[in-house]
């Protein structure tokens, strides 16, 4: 068997070819034949051809969540559902378009391959490297229990003392 | 949903097992997926999860990141051009991805799922409409980055990680078999 790379790329990159291909796909019974799994058949394809490859940015106004008092006003630029870059919002009368290097690197942070998206617990003891995925509820319960234990034992929460810009404002509040 | 009454080939079965293994999200589903390979080497559920997390999840730097973008575009990033290319491919194949913007489309488990469904279409349903896209998806994308993942995982492998070694060998065999089935004529 063989395939034409040029033909496939024409379907993917040429809007007219792609629409024509998708109309054929909807009519050919492919959608009802797909077995389903992580990916599902796009039932909307019968009525609506998906559009990707947006040319312009969507802009969102945000407050920087990097744990500083300033909470800089920022703008986030998104294309194809993917954050492209951010900048300080000049409209802000407080931060006036300012944004530090931490804020400016937000895209890298969000899309870092090293970023964890759910809690994990080291179950084999400290330093064992034996990590297990746990639920958010479990994680919050464990942390809350530890904090309450500390408070009971020391009569204070200074053990988790607030350090500015360190990421633990949430504990304080 | 999967029609289990229909006969499926060994090729489909292997793909399904690999897909389930890399898409497992807790120790139970991971162990089930692993046991489906009917291996001589058995491993404890928690031990398998810890091993899987060390290789493909974190929180320490994984031995081999499970995303195409890391191998094809930028070793530090997900959601790059490769991811968007795969997203476009899925849309053109008629797929809807419920985890859009939650898990990048070029995660190994998602790609194996797409490939499994495309093979299923041809083998079980005799629908060839997406065949050329499947060949393209495999030869221009999967076959470019998954061998790099295997190589990295093999390189970073510790003595005794037999469960992962077996899975990597299964993945490698799958890639070799598929590579010999189709060619671009350009």
What report would you give on this structure?
- Chain A has 7 helices and 7 strands.
- By secondary structure, chain A is an alpha+beta fold.
- Chain A folds into 3 domains: 42 residues, no CATH class; 53 residues, Phosphorylase Kinase, domain 1 (2-Layer Sandwich), CATH 3.30.200.210; 53 residues.
- In chain A, helix 1 crosses helix 2.
- The radius of gyration of chain A is 24 Å and the shape is flat.
- Chain B is mainly α and 186 residues long.
- Chain B has a domain of 114 residues.
- Chain B has 8 helices and 2 strands.
- The longest helix of chain B is centred in the C-terminal third of the chain and has 25 residues.
- Chain B is globular, with a radius of gyration of 16 Å.
- Strand 2 of chain A pairs antiparallel with strand 1 of chain B.
Task: Itemize the secondary structure elements and their pairings.
The complex is a heterodimer of chains A (173) and B (186).
Chain A: E1 2-3, H1 5-13, H2 15-27, H3 30-33, E2 40-41, E3 58-63, E4 73-79, E5 82-88, H4 101-104, H5 106-110, E6 120-122, E7 131-133, H6 136-154, H7 169-172
Antiparallel strand pairs in A: 3-4, 4-5, 6-7
Chain B: H1 10-23, H2 27-35, H3 45-56, H4 68-72, H5 81-93, E1 95-96, H6 108-123, H7 131-155, H8 162-179, E2 183-184
Helix pairs in contact in B: 1-2, 1-6, 1-8, 2-3, 6-7, 7-8
């Amino acid at each position: 068997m063989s395939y034409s790379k040029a033909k496939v790329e024409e379907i993917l990159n040429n809007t007219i070819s792609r629409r024509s291909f998708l109309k054929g796909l909807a009519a050919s019974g492919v959608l009802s034949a797909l077995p389903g799994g992580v990916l599902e058949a796009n039932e909307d394809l019968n009525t609506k051809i998906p559009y990707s490859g947006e040319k312009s940015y969507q802009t969102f106004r945000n407050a920087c969540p990097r744990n500083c008092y300033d909470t800089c006003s920022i703008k986030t630029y998104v294309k194809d559902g993917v954050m492209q870059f951010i900048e300080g919002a000049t409209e802000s009368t407080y931060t006036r378009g300012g944004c530090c290097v931490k804020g400016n690197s937000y895209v890298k942070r969000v899309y870092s391959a090293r970023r964890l998206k759910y809690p994990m617990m080291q179950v084999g003891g400290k330093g064992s490297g034996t990590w297990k995925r746990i639920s958010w509820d479990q994680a919050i319960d464990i942390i809350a229990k530890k904090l309450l234990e500390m408070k009971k034992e020391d009569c204070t929460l200074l053990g988790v003392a607030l350090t500015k810009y360190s990421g633990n404002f949430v504990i304080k509040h | 949903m999967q029609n289990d009454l229909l006969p499926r080939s060994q090729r489909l079965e292997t793909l399904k097992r690999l897909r389930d293994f890399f898409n497992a999200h807790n120790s139970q589903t991971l162990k089930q997926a692993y046991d489906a390979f009917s291996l001589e080497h058995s491993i404890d559920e928690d031990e398998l999860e810890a091993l899987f997390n060390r290789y493909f999840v974190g929180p320490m730097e994984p031995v081999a990141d499970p995303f195409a973008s890391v191998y094809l575009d930028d070793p530090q990033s997900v959601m790059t051009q490769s991811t968007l290319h795969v997203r476009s491919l899925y849309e053109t194949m008629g797929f809807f991805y419920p985890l859009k913007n939650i898990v990048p489309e070029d995660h190994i488990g998602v790609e194996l799922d797409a490939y499994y469904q495309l093979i299923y279409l041809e083998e079980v349903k005799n629908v060839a409409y997406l065949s050329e896209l499947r060949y393209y998806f495999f030869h221009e994308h999967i076959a470019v980055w998954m061998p790099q993942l295997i190589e990295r995982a093999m390189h970073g492998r510790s003595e005794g990680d037999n469960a992962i070694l077996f899975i990597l060998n299964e993945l490698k065999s799958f890639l070799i078999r598929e590579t010999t089935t189709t060619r671009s004529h350009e």
